[in-house]
Amino acid sequence: MRSPPRRPPRSSSSWQTPSPGGSRPGEPAVPKSFLGTWTGTVVTRHNIPNGTITSTIAPGAKGEYVVHTSYDFLIARCAAKAKLVSATATTLTLRERTDGKPGPGCTGAEAAVTYTLGKDGTLSFASDDEAGGRPRATMKKTGG
Questions:
Q1: Given pLDDT bands bounded at 50, 70 and 90, which one contains residue 81?
Q2: From 30, 60, 72, 117, which residue has the greatest number of CB atoms within 10 Å?
Q3: Is 132 left (phi over 0), alpha (psi -120 to 50) or beta?
Q4: Please, which residues bridge with residue 95 across strands?
């Protein structure tokens, strides 16, 4: 009687199973339609305009920093970076945190953020940052 074929140990790279969302570690997960620089006007939960947002979205996989954002309002600028949590063809879900030391007027809070592609070519942004007024924006791609 033959013994069953030997399987590689679980730690072997040939024994990886796809992570939720269908991508494997190191495999690109950000759809090409999101890539580039986007800008728009930030509005808080009370529909009060609060400066501008510029987000640059780069290729990457789950767990990697794929978005760098600047929030410009009044006389301040806040910088943030966001790790990819999940991606579909139309929505990116990320975990955002301050990129560097928070400046005056910046919350410094970690927040869940989403970017959703619109059928009209815009990109909707939403954040659950309570201290920042749960900001949201409709953004347009710049430079092409």
A1: very high
A2: 30
A3: alpha
A4: 83, 112
With cut-offs at 50, 70 and 90, classify the pLDDT of residue 24: low
Q: Return the pLDDT at 143.
A: 75
CA atoms within 13 A on the CB side of 72: 7
**Whose CA is closest to 136, among 60, 57, 63, 71?**
71
Q: Where are the beta strands (DSSP E) in 88-122?
A: 91-98, 111-117
Neighbours of 141 (CB within 10 A): 16
Count of CB atoms within 10 A of residue 29's CB? 23
According to the model, what pLDDT value does residue 9 have?
A: 39
Q: Bridge partners of 126?
A: 114, 136
Check the CA dihedral 19-21-22-24 and report its sign.
negative
Could you give the CA distance from residue 82 to residue 99 in angstroms, rounded to a whole number? Answer: 9
73 versus 36: the higher-pLDDT residue is 36
> CB count, 10 Å around CB of 9?
8
